[in-house]
## 1
Amino acid sequence: MHKRWIWAFLIGFLVIGTAQEKPQVFRGATIIPITGSPIENGVLVVQNGKITAVGSAASVTVPANAEIHNATGKVIMPGLVDTHSHLGDVEGGDRSATLHPDVRVIDAIDIHATSLKKALAGGITTVNLMAGSGYLMSGQTAYLKLRDGNTIEELLYCEDPLNGICGGMKMANGTNPMGDPPFSGTRAKSAALVRQLFIKAKEYQKKIADANGDASKMPARDLQMESLIEVLEGKRIVHHHTHRHDDILTILRLQKEFGYRVVLHHVSEGWKVAEEIAAAKVPCSIIYIDSPGGKLEAVGLLPKTGAVLEKAGVDVAFHTDDGITDSRLFFRSAAFAVRYGMSRDKALEGLTLAGARMLDLQDRIGSLETGKDADFIVLTGDPFSVYTRVEQTWVEGQKRFDFANPEDRQYAQGGFQVFREAAHVHGIGGGEE
């Protein structure tokens, strides 16, 4: 009886010790929760990787045993969500075909790449990593949280990468995926190839339904078809590279035919068809670049796109497309959008909660609310000021970047170590953006 009591005590002690991480309190900052107005002299309490309280100093009770962080004069907001990035030497399909729905980028990501540290220096805590757009379908993307870890599994949002859905599906149209056979040579042929593949997927889906659980009647496993069924069932979101307005309308036409969920990426000429995008209830993730860089289909890109889409009622997020735009300059894209007419609140939401919605992660990240993951950044000033820098980046209550640390600071300021990967960011055979 005595031994049983001792074991019970020890087990209880271990459980309590594991569960009760010391709370951390950040106070004195201006807190931008995204879901509400900024909180002056705010208090943020985090424990066990979650936000346990957020509000004004008068409304939040500070735990007696908390570690206190004085954030007076700082700005605290949610960690940034980059909905389209090519960090980590990511790879996708190869030149054997233009349609690769079976390819998983989780099998080709270097999570120790310095580019991920650079993203943390820019305040990014969640990324949608994908292969390049040199294919009509370059493979399955991966939603990563930039935790500290040694394996890709430790950074994924999904719990079971072998059987779960760990990201979306990268697709592209326009000039990038064009080429000699087996690639399409025209926009019309590109659309036809995609339609045919989804028709095949629907037929495969019907065979499974007709088998009604009878293993002897089930079709042979097909990795391409299995991933496309996830798309057709709305479980895997399509993330679609597109620029010209006619290419955007082609995507909306295919989306209407097959009923899958899609996020439009780049949308250089989205301002021309904003009403059509809004009517389809399709969200957009946009990028701001100083020039189209020789890409003729992107010459229609205008800095007013965010404002026009917002006015039409489209859900708008931003992305870096790193290495097209440096992850450390992510705020710059939203600042441009505000300068050309987008509301400040929607631009801040576009860096955070809107992006989370486009990854189906809005219940965990994107805003500072009780119960959500403790992913946040500490800024030296206004998010859209050119003089502001990211001072700290926290992921699930763990400090992942600190400008005061000389080793971390190099990823904020540049240097050879940071840029050594610049020659290889889009994968084998992948086009830009």
## 2
Amino acid sequence: MGAKYLLGVDIGTAGTKAGLFDLEGRLLAVAYAESQLRYPAPGWVEQDPEDFYRTAGITIREVVEKSGVNPRDIAGMAFDGQMAGIMGIDEEWNAVTRYDSWLDVRCQKYVDWLREHYGEKLIATVGMPPSIAHGPKMIWWKEEEPQVYHRIAKFIVPAVYVAGRMCGLRAEEAFEDYTYLHFSGVSDALKGRWSSELLDTFGLPEEKLPRIVEPWSIVGSVTGKAARDTGLAEGTPVAAGVGDTAASFLGAGMVEKGQAVDVAGTASVLAFCVDEFVPDTENKTLILPRAVQPGLWFAMAYIGGGGLCLRWFRDTWAATEREEAGRSGRDVYDILNEAAAEVPAGSAGLLFVPHLGGRVCPYDSRIRGAWIGFSWNHDKRSFYRSILEAVAYEYGCYLDITRKLFPSLEVKEVRSIGGGARSPLWNQMKADILGIPYVSLEREEVGIWGSALVAGYAVGIYKDLAGVAKELARPAQKFEVNEKAHAHYRPYRELYRELYAALKGVYDRLDEITRGR
């Protein structure tokens, strides 16, 4: 019998997740294994590359065993993974460095230097402002650790490292698909290649970069050793795969101009599918990564810790709700949402700034969280609701910029994915504030499904990747705009937009005081 299953694996920050699917997209088994973050110095965040391979092996073996399928019936696999960090390998694919995480800010001075001297040039060429990503990280290794840098044959990302280990690749075979290019800091995003101009400017040799490939390129097959490590059949094809964000967007069926998606996770991401590359050089807010589908882009921006604000509130303020959840077995966020639903729209005049660790889009590391307008009449419910509303107000800023840059864009709905998509209150709130209907999906595991889709297309099972992705992204519930609530929220949304200009001087001075300057 022919092969009839597909495997998707996500190499994430907190851990690795694997999922095995049948050809109709049904999830047969899923497994998760935690990874360890290391903090060797202030501002440094690293991970052991061996941990990526180890957790991939654990989760793949678990889904194969739980599903009971014959490993030889698995047609192919693909990895996705965290996108903005890098690691170095030698000629034999041995790790020369630990993974320099996207959470690691040791390269900050090089980010600042790039912003000062090359900010607009990078936005126009790469599609995003200088950030804690590949370019500044490579410069850091070159300038701060030259002996280690000399040993690095290629800089790669975690998903590529694991795929290469699975296939027994050498550095000369290193690859990276085009959905990662915006994080490189040295690419010509429009042409889909490395920018010799930027590389020369920053003194980085192209020889240390991987070749750029299509997501569905077959990069190798599972070796005998990898088969023993994972429980897979030797010879199973491995596709190049995509970045984790791109995988989630594909798994959510984001394959046409005008579609939009809200990733309500640790970060809060709002993205719009567009068919032209229009860099945001004026506002320096939107990022323009390539979509998996050729010819499409995502105009997107995000709150670095949107979901973390809710976790912080839960851990700091919600002891009573946590106790109730422990007694009843209910989710603590469901309890908090029920209470917040009792508060009028607008939180009775309470506004929240959701940037507890600085603002990312546009970048301002000095901004911090704030509550504006609270009085004796506000209580815990009001404060929690104001956090939910603040994420949507911030999304409103992204929406306004997107409409200005892409005036012909028509957005009919926003698809909601991630843990926060389980909240009907939050979905309705976002629909009302943005004035666009929201849709939750039946499928929760959109990231590993996106990777499985890529694998299926790579081995020829799916002939129309976009068609299958769209067909199998089935809606669960739709949240129509309440026009009365939309009108009520409008002045709050407009006032929120003015907060940053009003508070910037305060934030700057507070940063100077706390740093002792």
## 3
Amino acid sequence: MKKFEEKTISKEVLYEGKIINLQIEEVELPNGKTSKREIIKHPGAVCVIAVTDEGKIIMVEQYRKALERSILEIPAGKLEPGEEPHITAVRELEEETGYGCRELKPLISFYTSPGFADELVHVFVAEDLYKIENASATDEDEFVELIELTLEEAEECVKTQRIFDAKTAYAVLHLRLQQS
């Protein structure tokens, strides 16, 4: 066994849902002892920094029940089984904003909570946007408002915690680092 590897001894699936699955794994630790791990399995997600011709980032404001409040985010969504991340990015951009893009570039990928979840988020930058006539509507249980911010305004929103969604804050700050 590698220095930090944990060998799975047994696995029990406690919940299988639309977005996540929850399992308990009994593992053998590097020192030979055993422990239990609660693990969230997630298919992964994408988020999109959509930049208009005027240099503004299209954000969505939407209510998040888990937080009991509205938050400001970049468009995002869950990967469907077998779907490539860039396809999800194009779909989510259209569904949440009504825009398509002629240029889509990967920016970075990261794990959201590696201590207990395997969710990998892929961040894309969409440019050369165009409005889609008869765009796919948002999911019937999603209600969003579009807000456009410059990168500087988005950074200020991160600093003041107007943006406190981790994927959005990380994406905005990483975009700034790329431009420095």
## 4
Amino acid sequence: MSTTQDYQAAEQLFRRPTSPGELVVGDKVRPQWIDGGARFWYAVSNGAGRRFVLVDPAAGTREPAFDHARLAAALAAASGQQVDPEALPFAAIELAGNAVEFAAFGEYWRCRLDSYTCERAEFTPPGNPLEVPSPDGKVAVSRRGHDLWARSLSDGREWALTTDGEPDYQYGSGPDCTANGTLLRKIGLPYLPPSVAWSPDSTKVLAHRTDERDVRQTHLVEARPADGGAPLTHTQRYAYAGDEHMPTAELVVLDVAEGTVVRAQAEPLLMPQLSPIMTRWAWWAEDGSAVYYLSRPRDLRTLTLHRLDPATGEVTTVVSETGATRVEPNQWAYEPPIVRVLADEVLWYSQRDDWGHLYRYDLRTGALLGQVTAGQWAVRQILRVDEAERVVYFTASGLVEEDPYRRTVCRVGLDGSGFARVTDDELDHVVTMSAGQECFIDSASTVDTPPVTTVRDWTGRVLVELERADISKLTATGWTAPERFRVKAADGVTDIYGVLYRPRGFDPAERYPVVDNVYPGPQVNRVAPCFDPGGMGLDAEPLAALGFAVVALDGRGTPGRSKSFHDASYGHLADAGCLADHVAALRQLAETRPWLDLDRVGAFGHSGGGFAAARAMLDFPEVYRTGVALSGSHDARYFNLGFVESYDGADNPEAWASASNVDLADRLAGKLLLVHGEMDDQVHPDHTLRLADRLIAADKDFELLIVPGAEHTYIDCLTYVRKRCWDFLVRELMGTQPPAYRPAPIVIGPELLAELFA
């Protein structure tokens, strides 16, 4: 049974991503570079407060940014407020010479570090979050109406950069389908910052004019608006798979001082999901002499690198590659392209030999000069190119035999010679680049090894150790580290990998119900190879705290391996991340772990995972007896064109129809909870309501929770929604009554939003 203590532990674990330092101290370092990138400071939260640390990598020093006790005393004396040195009343600082500045108690303060005296200081307001400032800090660009405007940061003068914007044909906005309108309204923002990129010399802005005039209009009804008035209808441009029209982006270069607009002399870019500027598919050359951008046709089978002349708008082709399925510059859809333009060459990512590797092309002629990396492993990210030494530094996965998803920092000559591992161990390495690229910050961990964060030089030598994560408060909740496992896929040949969380208070003599915490991709992985479970792992640890054994894995068709492994999902979104592999994994795990009760298996997932959770019950009713589907994309025919056509093909209506749970509703045999936000503008609530309608028509019992006003993630009612899901699983899968325990709401503020979206 699940007790009040189990629910309390589950609540603590669910809050882990939103409460830095409450359970794990020192697991994340977010550097704030100063002195032109020579030094940085960072803050470490302990749950109650923060300590501020100053680091000089060249000197190999790490020390408190100031004396916390003396500063607390000085601030208390100056403000008349009580100040705890272990819980200082500010989250960020400015180091200015021999002083530190910060905002506290509604005022701005400057404290001298030689005398530790504090005084009120002139407050410089932080930058407007809706503006994008220039590199030299003199001008900022923002959206106004349907156009882009500039503002002088010295005297406040404003002027229009464009004047011909109109509804659904405007400048600086991404597609409406990913504009997060519901979430932005909740946090008080009218829209996202403009999709623009400044030239290195701060004279020009790369932007695009977004054309959605012919894109399908969809509608959401807000039953109870914030003002308590009559229901409101919200209209959104949102293209479905197979629609004739999708959003497009017309690239423009705006001269901020001269007021000129140079338009790209090329066809508009197809932009089904995200702005090419925000995804870094369009960027400035380091010297500002050109803009480079990537494009693909609707079938996604050709990837082309273009050069745009910012003075004339002339566009030329640099490199182009065509394949049998989609050609992509990175297997992970939301990570930047693995492409780097050098002085005379291009480093180009390609999976032409079935593995993601770097190839070198002549920038002027487009001729292939040679393959730079090779082997049965994949390049993950270009970190640095030293053109003088003719060496590229990068991260790669597939070099650690125990876990092919772990990342290793490597180097190789641009001619393909001299390959070496910079981090030569069995750990996963998450890299943060220094401002001047003279060193890098390395967080090394595994799923069961807490991270150690260091600063390294490019030989791999540790310059200074920053943090060793303290997980003592995490283990005090009853948490135990997950087990990384390897089993065979349903084909009996392919290795697949996942994690297994043992239930709180684990006793191998007991039998435990199992929850498969699913997310099918194919654009991202469900399981991260590092200690931080990430957003996809938000629910696994709390479910284990409730007393469930929790399994999460990446089946065939997900990223991180070979091209053929990833392409197992191409045209097969209906397989929901290869659920057959999940079933095979569950059975293999139970062979050596008799405490896994395969007569009590449930599925739990959100978004694509909601689709997969319901699909598991419909395709494998003999295995999955219970399911929780939150915000599920249950019918590909009515989902985002960019996602569906990327992975099922641009002209494949039969596959789209197969990726519909709605048409299989009469197969339901177990207990299913459907949850959806009324104002979900990413996966519209009609997905769940279509499935509910078909279930009713098939005379099937199920539970349905529609959350008024909620967007895709339930950001302002997280704990309420999760408790409803936990209670359902405890009743229907564990077979007991849940305790009368109510988790406290999670308050979403600016600091938490910054943490969640960092």
